[in-house]
């Protein structure tokens, strides 16, 4: 039976497509702007502290979510500190479950900066596609989802494609050594595992509750801010912050990277709400092509035979995975 629904729009365009196109642009920009922020700086100045950048990004997301929440609650005459606190911590016990993805995302967001430090943007992005694989595996394990044979094949292809890109060795690197590349690869691999687990966990909590996306994201940001401030800024970088300040080494590119990460987080949430995780995978694949082209011009990045073959396999695998969509991933169905 077909159920007709009116699609939400922004300035007349379906929000689903607005959020996806924005994700493509944001994802391409993220890897490049992050790389620029780490590499293109005045060597006489200290590098900015990643811990502070991650905290700032969570803070911006939290501010946006609070503003949207306040607007929505004010519209129905329900806005008060009491209802805010009840919504955040009192209505159900699900808020406690949000601490898990919050901490996972906190670590993942830090690792992204480590990865772009040691890998060129294009290699980072192709390797980061491994999160499709980890998300699928965690969906099978935690959500008891089953995957068709084609999906498994496309996941194996994806892994091969990423391996081919890695075999490319020094040819595609922008001047980083073997050990540093290994560090970058380790960072991106762990980030993929955390991304998969955090995403599936978030999905599981959302499906089982009625709370709005912005409320859940407020909880996510708040619970990421706590370890971000305590472990990141205070414990890891406390001395540096005391000596040279919280915003040491900040440039326009740092603010660009922070904004990109913040906007990205909000778009990921919207894409999951108005489109689905599969389409999200497509959007990020498209952004690989965009950032490879941009890396070619901006970072002296040479498109080699192996890189081209490997990325094509990754893109085809993503396409195959999306085409045989069981569409069970529209996680907002339960909201
Ligand atoms: O897709 P991926 O795992 O890379 O997206 C993760 C990014 O999106 C992280 O930066 C995370 O903090 C952010 N995010 C968010 N809100 C969500 C889901 C993810 O801010 N609901």
UniProtKB/TrEMBL annotation:
It is found in: Membrane. It comes from Powellomyces hirtus. GO terms for molecular function: pyrimidine nucleotide-sugar transmembrane transporter activity. Signal peptide: none annotated. This is UDP-galactose transporter. Keywords: Membrane, Transmembrane, Transmembrane helix. PANTHER family: NUCLEOTIDE-SUGAR TRANSMEMBRANE TRANSPORTER (PTHR10231). SUPFAM superfamilies: Multidrug resistance efflux transporter EmrE. The keyword Membrane applies. The lineage of its organism: Eukaryota, Fungi, Fungi incertae sedis, Chytridiomycota, Chytridiomycota incertae sedis. The chain crosses the membrane at residues 17-36, 48-70, 150-167, 182-202, 214-233, 253-272, 279-299, 305-322. GO terms for cellular component: Golgi membrane. It is a multi-pass membrane protein. InterPro entries: EmrE-like, Nuc_sug_transpt. The keyword Transmembrane helix applies. It holds the Pfam family Nuc_sug_transp.
């Amino acid at each position: 039976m077909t159920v007709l629904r009116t699609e939400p729009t922004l300035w007349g365009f379906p929000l689903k497509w607005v959020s996806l196109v924005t994700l493509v642009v944001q994802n391409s920009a993220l890897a490049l702007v992050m790389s620029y922020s780490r590499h293109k700086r005045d060597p006489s100045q200290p590098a900015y502290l990643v811990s502070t950048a991650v905290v700032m990004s969570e803070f911006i997301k939290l501010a946006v979510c609070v503003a949207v929440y306040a607007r929505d609650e004010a519209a129905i005459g329900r806005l008060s500190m009491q209802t805010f606190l009840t919504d955040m911590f009192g209505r159900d016990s699900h808020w406690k479950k949000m601490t898990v993805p919050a901490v996972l995302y906190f670590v993942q967001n830090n690792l992204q900066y480590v990865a772009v430090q040691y890998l060129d943007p294009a290699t980072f992005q192709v390797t980061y596609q491994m999160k499709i694989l980890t998300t699928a595996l965690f969906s099978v394990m935690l959500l008891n989802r089953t995957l068709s044979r084609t999906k498994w094949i496309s996941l194996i292809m994806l892994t091969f494609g990423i391996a081919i890109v890695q075999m490319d060795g020094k040819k595609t690197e922008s001047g980083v050594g073997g050990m540093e590349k290994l560090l970058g690869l380790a960072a991106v691999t762990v980030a993929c595992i955390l991304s998969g687990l955090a995403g599936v966990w978030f999905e599981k909590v959302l499906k089982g509750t009625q709370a709005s996306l912005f409320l859940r994201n407020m909880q996510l940001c708040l619970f990421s801010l706590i370890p971000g401030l305590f472990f990141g800024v205070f414990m890891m970088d406390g001395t540096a912050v005391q000596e040279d300040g919280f915003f040491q080494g900040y440039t326009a590119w740092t603010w660009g990277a922070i904004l990109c990460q913040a906007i990205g987080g909000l778009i990921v949430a919207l894409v999951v709400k108005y489109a689905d995780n599969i389409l999200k995978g497509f959007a990020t694949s498209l952004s690989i092509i965009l950032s490879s082209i941009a890396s070619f011009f901006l970072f002296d990045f040479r498109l080699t035979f192996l890189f081209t073959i490997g990325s094509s396999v990754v893109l085809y695998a993503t396409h195959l995975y999306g085409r045989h969509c069981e569409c069970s991933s529209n996680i907002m169905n339960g909201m």
